[in-house]
Write a structure and sequence with these properties.
The protein has helices spanning 19-32, 55-74, 90-96, 104-115, 126-138, 155-164, 166-182, 193-201, 215-231, 247-256; strands at 2-10, 38-44, 79-82, 101-103, 119-123, 149-150, 187-190, 206-207, 210-212. The protein is an alpha/beta fold. Strands 6-5-7-9-8 form a 5-stranded mixed β-sheet, sandwiched between helices. Strands 2-1-3-4 form a 4-stranded parallel β-sheet, with helices on both faces. Helix 4 (104-115) packs across helix 9 and helix 6 packs across helix 7.
């Protein structure tokens, strides 16, 4: 099968600060996919400052992701994966295309619940940790989580530190994780997708005996499963608030707004 793996981060051409993550993601994700699964990696071309903090900027940003999903469906991909833990465009993406769409945040939290009674999020900073907590509540998993923790880095500063001070980052993550572990977390989910790749490549699979979830593996396996289920005769749902708009309605709207 063919999976389109989309990130929120800009290409290394557009912003060299993301080069390390782009290379690590492509290197690692291919290892967790099935041997017969082809992964196509894509980034966005633009990312405004404060995107992670502003709902309006996120609204502007996610349009690039939706266009990528539409392109993936046109080019015959079997599934679309969104590799950003905020799961931006959740409803819009599933309306816009008929191929399965797997979100790394949703997949990570759901798989964490399959593997352990309680999970906690370890994030890069306080504001995104609050956003992750809200998303967990939106998914109805609040009772399966304990309060998370963060290590106090911006995304770009943390990515830079992956290269310059990897040992220090691992120790800081371990120190931050100990509070939620004491509060009952039996599995840890990294709230920043790049941190998941980093810890996996550093060989940090557990902290004080508590497993660190491999979010990349979770979302790739979710996408592969969703494709398998389609092949077994389970189509995309067609009823309910997310699906009362037809594909023709979507195409008409895209023409009205000059997108097609």
């Amino acid at each position: 099968m063919k999976i389109w793996y989309q990130t929120y981060s800009p290409t290394a051409r557009a912003d060299p600060r993301w080069r390390h993550y782009e290379e690590a993601c492509e290197r690692y994700v291919s290892k967790v996919a099935r041997p017969d699964t082809e992964i196509h990696f894509a980034s966005v071309e633009k990312r405004a400052p404060k995107m992670t903090l502003s709902k309006y900027i996120q609204y502007l940003h996610v349009g690039q992701v939706i266009e990528s999903a539409i392109q993936a469906e046109r080019e015959g991909f079997d599934a679309f994966v969104l590799g950003g833990m905020r799961d931006l465009g959740y409803s819009e993406l599933r309306e816009a295309v008929d191929i399965p769409v797997a979100f790394i945040g949703e997949a990570s939290y759901q798989v964490a619940c399959l593997l352990a009674p309680k999970f906690a999020v370890i994030h890069n900073d306080e504001a995104p940790l609050q956003a992750a907590t809200a998303l967990i509540k939106k998914y109805g998993l609040e009772n399966r989580s304990v309060p998370g923790a963060h290590i106090g880095y911006s995304q770009t500063d943390l990515i830079a530190a992956f290269e310059s001070q990897p040992g220090r980052i691992v120790e800081e993550v371990k120190a931050a994780a100990r509070t939620p572990i004491k509060q009952g977390a039996a599995i840890l989910v990294t709230g920043f997708a790049a941190l998941s790749v980093f810890l996996a490549e550093q060989g940090t699979r557990e902290i004080d005996g508590v497993q660190v979830l491999d979010s990349q593996a979770a979302v790739i396996k979710a996408a592969e499963m969703m494709v398998d289920l389609r092949k077994l005769g389970m189509p995309k749902p067609r009823k309910g608030p997310l699906f009362d708009v037809s594909k023709d309605d979507i195409q008409t709207a895209r023409k009205v707004y000059g997108l097609q």
